[in-house]
Amino acid sequence: MSDQRPMPRGDAMENLVIAQMRDDLRAARRRRRLGVPGWSIITTATAAIVAVVAIMVSMLAAPTPSYAATPPMLQIEAAQAGREDAAQLLDDLAGQLRASNEPDPAPPGQPQQIDLQTWSLVTTVGAEGEHVQPPYVAPENMTLTRYPDGAWSQVVVAGRPYDAEGKPADDPHAPEPGSELWRIDEAAGEHTFLFPDPLPDDPSELRQLMLDVGFADESSPNEWLSLTTALLMERVLRPSEEAAVLQVLADLDLELAGTTTDRLGREAYVFETPPSDVDLVDRLLVSPSGHILATETVWVGHDRTDIPSPSVVSYYAWEGRA
Question: Could you say which DSSP state residue 253 is in?
């Protein structure tokens, strides 16, 4: 069914900045909530570089005549379940991963490559104070490569644009799908990782490791999912490591929203946070075999005139890890 459930609203602006250094990340997250008018969409292009885009749209500007193009909402088959069901399912999926005979997707000594599709809402304000709306959704395909010696590369190419209904969109001025938009190449020693070493298999040790990276509010499930996204953009996980991630997330205040088909055509369970104080719901999509497929952020407030409520404002869909 279409996900159009009513959500409560909030009055703050989220300004979560994931920075390159651990200390910068910790300090930035402590400045996360600012009590000023407005709204901010934050997207992490990668946790490994200072590539966070914060697009702030003042609600004092003139209302826009039309909505911005945002991705279609996932069609979620609702589950009659709650917090305990979510925790139990995540634990069960973790156990399934640990019992599997899946090979290590990235053998030691080999480069780790992460392929994903990503998108975030970009709204700008024109010279006359009007909101300039993107006419379509323009996803990007990102390839992250982590080499054994610590070198790092990030290549981003244009995806195929589509409209708010998910249908292909054409624009002669848009980059050709598959064309390179930008890239970053860093030699060994130049890149600072949030997670420089292999993850522990024990969930309690992993939880402490994530706490050491830093939170403004360690009780916030939104922050835990944000850091999980960053982790999955840095490392290709062994099944036991991914199982530990699921067990850490099982201790959060997540709910089982139901099942869906994700943006890449894969079946998934949908786990979600309660609405944050800035009207954002974060979602985690996990396959029936226990692999994390995607994360999404949905705005559920009522203070914007340029996008409907609810609206997807960012997503990351992992296509491959090797």
Answer: S
CB contact set of 224 (below 8 Å; sequence gap of 6+):
210, 215, 248, 249, 252
Domain ranges across the chain: 13-321
Q: Got the DSSP string for 138-203?
A: --EEEEEEE-TTS-EEEEEEE---B-TTS-B---TTSPPTT-EEEEEEE-TTT---SS-SPPPSSH
User: Is the pTM for the entire model greater than 0.90?
Assistant: no
Q: Are 39 and 303 in contact (CB under 8 A)?
A: yes
For the chain, 322 residues long, give each residue's pLDDT as a single digit of tens. 344 333 322 222 233 333 333 344 444 433 332 222 222 222 333 332 222 222 222 222 333 335 678 999 999 998 876 667 999 999 999 999 999 988 888 778 899 999 999 999 876 666 676 656 667 899 999 999 999 999 999 999 999 999 888 899 887 778 999 999 999 999 999 999 999 999 999 999 999 999 998 877 888 999 999 999 999 999 999 999 999 999 999 999 899 999 999 999 999 999 999 999 889 999 999 999 999 999 999 999 998 887 889 999 999 999 998 8
Rounded CA gap, 306 and 236, in Å?
Answer: 37
The residues, any chain, with a CB within 8 Å of residue 188's CB and separated by 6 or more, are 147, 149, 150, 151
What are the backbone dihedrals phi and psi of residue 162, each rounded to the nearest 5 degrees, phi first?
-145, 160
